[in-house]
Specification:
Helix content is 48%, strand content 15%. The chain is an alpha/beta fold. The protein has a single domain (4-203), classed as Nucleotidyltransferase, domain 5, CATH 3.30.420.10. Strands 3-2-1-4-5 form a 5-stranded mixed β-sheet. A hairpin with an 8-residue loop joins strand 1 (17-23) and strand 2.
């Protein structure tokens, strides 16, 4: 994975490009989390460029096998992102009750819009283009956007957004596992695994399960 695609859009005049992805869309329990990432060019920084560039390359090298990343690797990348002044990100979480109320697609778009708004406010910029993983544009969003199927495998900013969303959501599910230990959320993170379904069959659903989802 590299920055070729971002550079392609930059050459077309897009200076501020946001990459967006989510985690938890297909889960049976817990929130959906969306994250947005911008990777800025080193030319805007005149000090310590070598160190910053190396950190960026270290992150992108790890992302080459993004689909195979385990929890430890995602946490490592997340830590590197926080240390890198060239990378800025934001995230937002929408709970299961809202998912049931407005449906998972709209809940995902809501989380994405909130994330974008937070990053815009944090950086005091307006994105020229938003690259969205998948084939659905974010509803009720005025900023220019482009959908990219398998974007987390093609676009560095989307891949990093995927990491952020997964790290934040995994931490939340691990915390919820302490409140609902019988469901072992720390293992399956709320997704419809055989283990999760067997525990639902044994204990029934709890308050963080999505009532609008088929749990059997």
């Amino acid at each position: 994975m590299d920055l070729k695609t971002e550079k392609f859009y930059q050459k077309k005049g897009y200076k501020y490009i946001f990459g967006v992805d989510e985690a938890g869309r297909g889960a049976l329990a817990g929130p959906v989390v969306a994250a947005v990432v911008i990777i800025r060019s080193p030319k805007f920084y005149k000090t310590k460029l070598g160190r910053v560039k190396n950190k960026r390359l270290e992150i992108l090298k790890t992302l080459k096998d993004s689909k195979k990343l385990n929890t430890k690797k995602r946490e490592e990348i997340f830590k590197l992102m926080k240390q890198n002044p060239l990378i800025n990100f934001s995230w937002s979480m929408v709970g299961e009750k809202t998912v049931d109320k407005i449906n998972i697609s709209e809940a995902t778009f809501l989380a994405m819009r909130r994330s974008i708004k937070k990053l815009k406010k944090k950086m005091k910029i307006n994105p020229n283009l938003i690259l969205v993983d998948g084939n659905q544009k974010i509803s009720k969003l005025k900023s220019p956007q482009k959908t990219i199927i398998k974007g987390d495998e093609k676009i560095s900013s989307i891949a990093l957004a995927s990491v952020v969303a997964k790290v934040i959501r995994d931490r939340k599910m691990i915390a919820l596992a302490k409140k609902y230990p019988q469901y072992k959320f720390e293992i399956h993170k709320g997704y419809p695994t055989k283990l999760h379904k067997s525990l639902i069959k044994k204990y029934g659903i709890c308050e963080i399960h999505r009532k609008s989802f088929k749990t059997k």
